[in-house]
Amino acid sequence: MKDKVDILFIINGLGIGGAERNLYEYVKHLDRRRYHPRVCSVGQGGPLKEDFEKLDVEVVVFPKKHKFDFTLIYKVARYIRKSKVDIVVTILFYADVIGSIAAKLAKVPIIICWAAGSTPRGSKNSGLRHIYSYRIIRYFFDKIVSVSEGTRRFLIKERNIPPNLLTVIHYGVDVEKYKIMNLDQKRRELGVDGRDFVIGVVARLTKQKGHIYLIEAAKEIVKKYPNTKFLLVGDGPLRVMLEKKVAEYNLRDNFIFLGFRDDVNQLLNVMDIFVLPSLWEGLPNVILEAMACGKPVVATAVDGTPEAVIDNETGILVPPKDPQALEEAIVRLLSNSSEMRRLGENSRKRIEEFFSINYQASRFEELYTQLLRKKVSRIYV
Q: For position 377, what pLDDT does the model report?
């Protein structure tokens, strides 16, 4: 009889993405008296490798030799057998495929898919390869955990996943790390005047995140509020194009491109309003972080976002690809400080009640216990 349950989390890589960062926070808050976690990256390492290791978590990286390296299946299976893993949790498409097959070969008792997002038809992650892969590997999973009801609906409709295989566990955030702070010094470091309004986005500079629509909206916003600064936190393939667009609209004095940062909790506290104009999402972790910092949110009403952002209670929801709606929502808040304060206070309360990392961890532990009781009597739970 084992005194701890061995869990292996298999993920595509260890970069600074929403799914990766939430996995780190979740493992950090996992009950080590009952669970022994390991992390496996299939394809690439990344900055989070060192962070996991500081938590005294074993991390193994299996680099892939080409885009889809099937030899990793056998490498991961050997590692699973050697480590005597009881539960495998896979995160993101490549890890879902490699990890689920490897876990099945290694005869792991419990295999869980942690579905972090959805993708619209026509995107690179919605092709036949993804659709048919999930139709095969779904039979390997004991449960598929969706991060939002929106993602659950997507999985049923687009991936043909049976509803009884799905359960929803929302992302959670560390409410102590992401909290309301007064950071006048940080504002000065960024060159933000005390009289400036600060609008912020934290997201990779990709088409999905919709930065271009905020830049379009900014043209009109600065006419009414010229002392508005826009902080774009993150990097990505569209940076050059977005910088050119900012220059074309004569907005260089209003936009600050900060690139990747490790002080996101402080940067969120510098902002007056957090904006996320995404075209699609699962459940954006950074929105939860902004709400935990007491910020009103202006976001597009896509997928799981409305489950966190309650329109006119914790923020304002707008349609995707609509610069005018973005502009009107932001101007509405800039013109009403009491409304900004009300929405921000409600945001913090909502996170504390429904989206804390401890609540997320407890929901996962309930799931592990339920599945293990059904299938494995030899493991102490």
A: 53
